[in-house]
Design goal:
Number of helices: 11
Largest sheet: none
Strand content: under 5%
Order of helices and strands: HHHHHHHHHHH
Mean pLDDT: 80
Structural class: mainly alpha
Number of strands: 0
Helix content: over 70%
């Protein structure tokens, strides 16, 4: 794989001090967010504090649109479900949106738009926090996917995105760890997702139309 191959240990040690600083800042930020959300849901849900009113407004907004299958809800679902640390069966959600008579072309476009956002976040976090990413995904899954990538390269990237229920979200973070070519990353993941959801749409129309 040339520049995209790596040794098991050297990559995670590269530029370690900078990565540690970034990890600490990110951890503190996420910790503060978690404390705010926990405080809100446990103690302050009915309070008049501005920040908690804002949290309630945001969560209610997202929940409303996702449960009602609006266009915004579809976009939110694909952004949230595309994150590598969130486990959501996006293919099942897609079929559910189709059953709500959402225009298939618009549905696929919104899904791809959301995935571009979430997969970019995955890639960036993988690139910045490679050791932490490996732990979140699990070492076993990480090195299994790494082995497939080393053997199959671009075909593997396309296949992971084109085949239903394959772990394309963790893959996007792992590709960030590898510092995989960004142009290839976007081309193969978008093509793969486009093929997958186009085939799901065709199958759904063929069976239920």
């Amino acid at each position: 794989m040339g520049e995209e191959s790596f040794s098991r240990h050297a990559l995670f040690q590269y530029n370690l001090p900078k990565k540690l600083r970034f990890a600490i800042i990110l951890f503190v930020f996420l910790f503060v967010i978690a404390v705010l959300f926990a405080s809100y849901f446990l103690f302050l849900k009915e309070s008049d504090i501005v920040i908690f009113n804002a949290i309630k407004a945001v969560t209610d907004h997202i929940k409303y649109h996702m449960t009602n299958g609006t266009l915004l809800g579809i976009l939110y679902a694909s952004i949230i479900g595309g994150l590598f640390f969130v486990t959501i069966p996006m293919e099942a959600f897609f079929v559910g949106f189709l059953r709500n008579n959402t225009n298939p072309y618009l549905l696929i476009t919104l899904y791809l738009t959301g995935f571009i956002i979430s997969f970019t976040i995955n890639y960036f976090l993988g690139m910045r926090l490679d050791a932490l990413t490996k732990k979140i995904i699990s070492s076993k899954k990480f090195y299994k996917i790494k082995g497939v990538l080393n053997k199959r390269g671009a075909i593997a990237v396309f296949a992971f995105n084109a085949l239903p229920f394959f772990p394309s979200q963790p893959l996007s973070a792992i590709l960030g760890v590898f510092k995989y070519n960004r142009v290839k990353f976007y081309v193969y993941f978008i093509l793969g997702q486009l093929v997958k959801y186009s085939l799901i749409t065709i199958g759904y129309i063929y069976i239920f139309a």
